[in-house]
Specification:
This protein is an alpha/beta fold. It has two domains: 3-192, no CATH class; 195-344, 3-Layer(aba) Sandwich (Rossmann fold). It contains 13 helices and ten strands. The chain has helices at residues 19-35, 40-43, 46-53, 77-93, 106-112, 121-127, 143-154, 178-187, 218-224, 228-240, 277-286, 296-304, 336-344; strands spanning 65-68, 97-98, 131-134, 161-164, 203-208, 247-252, 269-272, 289-291, 308-312, 325-328. The longest helix has 17 residues, at 19-35.
Length: 345
Amino acid sequence: MKNTNTVGVAAPNYGKRSFVDNAIAKVTGIITRKARGTKFQFWLYKSYWHSKIAQPTNNADLSNIYMSGRPNYGAGIGHQLANWNSGLYHSGIFKLKFAHYPFSSPKWEKLFGFGEGEPSVYDLTKNKGYKLVRLPWFEEFSKEDTEKAFNIIKSYSGKKVVFLLDTDQGYKKQFETRDILQAKFYKATARSNDNIVLNNEYFNIAVHIRPRMAIETDIVWEKRGLDNIYFSKVLDQVLALCSEKNVKIYLFSQGNKANFPEFDKYKNITYCLDMNPYDSVVNMVYADCIISSKSSFSYKPALISNGIKICPSSFWHRYPNTNDFILVDNDSIFDIEKLKKQLLL
């Protein structure tokens, strides 16, 4: 039981752990993931057994209880943002206070500024006398699982506790915290130092193409990938409606220009293939229009952006049902009339 309840405190070391800590975390992750969907899903956590001993009550005092989502430091920043956002969302669902857990590097931490003005897990557990407790992974759409998780929380009534969601705790929609994410991003101190390459005299279109990874099989790529032709077709339709606008195109991806022959025909296109990921995210956010991939790396900038978002409908996260989000099927077909209205605003 000991290893499956090991919890790392969110110290400001940005993911740097010892070999032993990494090994424990890896083994713990394998065990808990294997248990998901089985009767052992909750049994592996001390907090579950605590709820069996300290029976929860409906009038539990949750005033001193926080919740946080720990970014998966072994994943990319888009994935980490989903983890963090899950903590923010579920803290609201369970009516708890939210505590910030840092991203994997100080650069990402500063760029988003999501921890500014928020209590941190590190400060609460190291300086304020709070105990860090792991909440078992639960199926977010299961009423039974959610009730079990809430009963665990209520069993700590009156105590100073920070609940840490399990690694990659599901939160499929992701967009319900959008207003908070936008407010935090635009108010962050880093905004005064943003490196913007967009031209304010033009209508700036950002296109993000997620490249195929060497380890991806054809089956995986069919689910996660979109080829250059898809993006070219979408862009052609957008440009056809922008005949009276001065347009600049910015292509965000990896590789070199030769990997994108479908884009040779476009004028005023800038290939942002060597741009660092931090500047890439910021410029995608500030674009007047972003054409995103099946990738969290452009999904999150789309959520934060105030511009027009043209996004693949078959992505595993969901989108707000708002006019500024225009969804595209795998054949590059979308609601042209909806885009027309947005371009007139």
